[in-house]
Specification:
This protein has 188 residues and is of the alpha+beta class. The chain has helices spanning 54-57, 105-113, 135-141, 152-157, 163-170, 173-179, and strands at residues 12-16, 29-36, 40-45, 49-50, 68-70, 74-83, 93-96, 99-101, 122-131, 145-149. The protein has a single domain (12-187), classed as VC0467-like (3-Layer(aba) Sandwich). β2 and β3 (40-45) form a beta hairpin.
Length: 188
């Protein structure tokens, strides 16, 4: 199946192939937050920071300096978040061990207001990425995506454009080569 032999699933990462030129997904790393062949998949782009602070977008949010990321092209006016806070946040969903999606937003605001959350414990996203049933599998078969296992430490601590190449390099030599491909080979 595709460029790797790992199947997609909740908690897996999607790494875009080097020459995918879609403006949202070019050199993207996406965490799959929900997955079912029958209902489709959703995920969050981890490496596309946007020029927006939470305090600009939310008037009742406590002061917070953390980065906001573009999670994807769907519902870009909605805020989503992943965290490592577990049971401190009611109604969250465990994606993989020690990594959670969503939960009670009032609790998040309270924890931030009382300085009980460090920046590497939570990430915020405007919008999300989504696939119809079997769409993601087709795109993987067409080699648009490489599937790999997620690493909580890397997800929560790598917060820049280099994440795409760092994940590929961590996957081994055959993938590290892809990390060095130019964005536009015709300019080489």
């Amino acid at each position: 199946m595709g460029l790797s032999n790992i199947n997609p699933g909740q908690g897996k990462l999607l790494i875009s192939e080097p020459f995918l030129h879609d403006p949202y997904f070019q050199r993207s790393v996406i965490l799959i937050t929900e997955y079912s062949p029958e209902t489709g998949a959703s995920g969050l782009i981890l490496n596309k920071p946007i020029d927006l602070s939470l305090n600009e977008g939310l008037t009742d949010f406590p002061p917070y300096d953390g980065q906001v990321y573009l999670g994807g092209p769907i519902h870009k006016d909605n805020l989503f978040f992943i965290h490592t806070l577990g049971e401190k946040v009611e109604d969250c969903v465990e994606i993989i061990p020690n990594l959670y999606w969503g939960g009670n937003f009032e609790i998040i605001k309270s924890l931030i207001a009382s300085n009980q959350i460090r920046e590497n414990q939570i990430r915020f996203f405007a919008g999300y990425s989504g696939w119809e049933p079997r769409q993601l599998e087709r795109e993987i078969d067409e080699q648009a995506w490489i599937v790999t296992n997620a690493d909580v430490n890397q997800i929560m601590n790598t917060r820049n454009d280099s994440m795409w190449s760092e994940v590929l390099k961590k996957m081994g030599t055959e993938y590290a080569i892809l990390a060095n491909f130019p964005v536009d080979p015709s300019l080489n």
